[in-house]
Structure formats: C-alpha cells, structure tokens
Amino acid sequence: MEITMKAYGEAVQLLLNAANTGTSGGRASAQVLLCAYNGEEWQLDVTDLGILDHRHYDAAITVIRGRKELWHEPQEVVENGGRRFDEILKRWGHLRVSERGKRTCFNCYGSGKVPVALNKDNCDEMVTCQRCDGKGRYWQE
Ligand SMILES: [Zn+2]
Question: Most CB atoms within 10 A, among 6, 64, 86, 132?
C-alpha cells in the first residue's frame, strides 16, 4: 500500500509526542525521527523498535517509508516541525553518533555541575564537574 503525506505527517506527529517524554518509547521514537532527519548524525538502533507498542511501531515504519518513498524530511510534514525537532535534538543529544559511546558522568549524574563543597553551609553553590569537564558525559576508559 502506498504511503500518503497525511499518513506520514500523522506518524511523525505521534512519534514527536512520544519523543518529548523521557521514556524508553520516547528514546526509540526520537531515534526514528532523528535518523530520518539526518542519518549521518543520528542512527536508529533497530532492536529499540521492540520497545514500541503496535501503534508507535506502525508509525515508525510509516516514517521510514515516508522518508524514502515521499522524499520529504520528517520536520517538513508537520506544523512547526523545525521548532519541534529542535526540542527533541536537545532532549536526545546524547544519542548523537558522536556521543553514543560515552557514559553519563557518575560524579555529577550527567548535569555537569557539582556542589562547591558538601560540608559548607552554602551547599547550593555549584561548580563545573572536574570528572567530565562540565559535559555530563565522558568516554568510558
Ligand atoms: Zn560530571
């Protein structure tokens, strides 16, 4: 069956909603959208499709087919696509190809900041984490 622009747009919309959550389904949805957006910087772990329920899995396949068969990038087929993709680019930045091999910093829990000193009165003051140089992630040694 042929993919229509309407079906493609609805599938992108459904996955965008999921990708705006911090869930494992959100992670899988984000990978589908982001690799259809820019396949050099983002890639889909196909085994993550197993996380999706039937409805979201169908949407994922529709997005893949829409990208190939209709020759439109996913951000072009929904309203405010550029802005909405920016949101998931930020949320899922650690899934970029260049970031994939890194671990979340155990010292700052990925925030890049640590308290100045735990035993001082003013322990709200934060400084850059030395372990990860403020990036929140680092290459596993
Ligand atoms: Zn750190």
Answer: 132
Distance from residue 99's CA to the centre of ligand 1 (Å): 15
- Supply the pTM of this predicted model: 0.80
Ligand 1 centre distance from Cα of residue 92 (Å): 18
- Tokens for 134, please give them: 């403020």
Please give the distance, rounded to the nearest whole angstrom, from the Cα atom of residue 95 to the centre of ligand 1: 18
Task: Find tokens 């499709």 and name the residue.
Answer: 49
Taking the centre of ligand 1 as the mean of its atom positions, its distance from the CA of residue 16, in whole angstroms, is 29
Per-residue pLDDT in tens (0 to 9) along the chain, 141 residues: 899 999 999 999 999 999 999 889 999 999 999 999 999 999 999 999 999 999 999 999 999 999 999 999 999 999 999 999 999 999 999 899 998 889 889 998 888 988 887 555 666 788 999 999 998 889 887
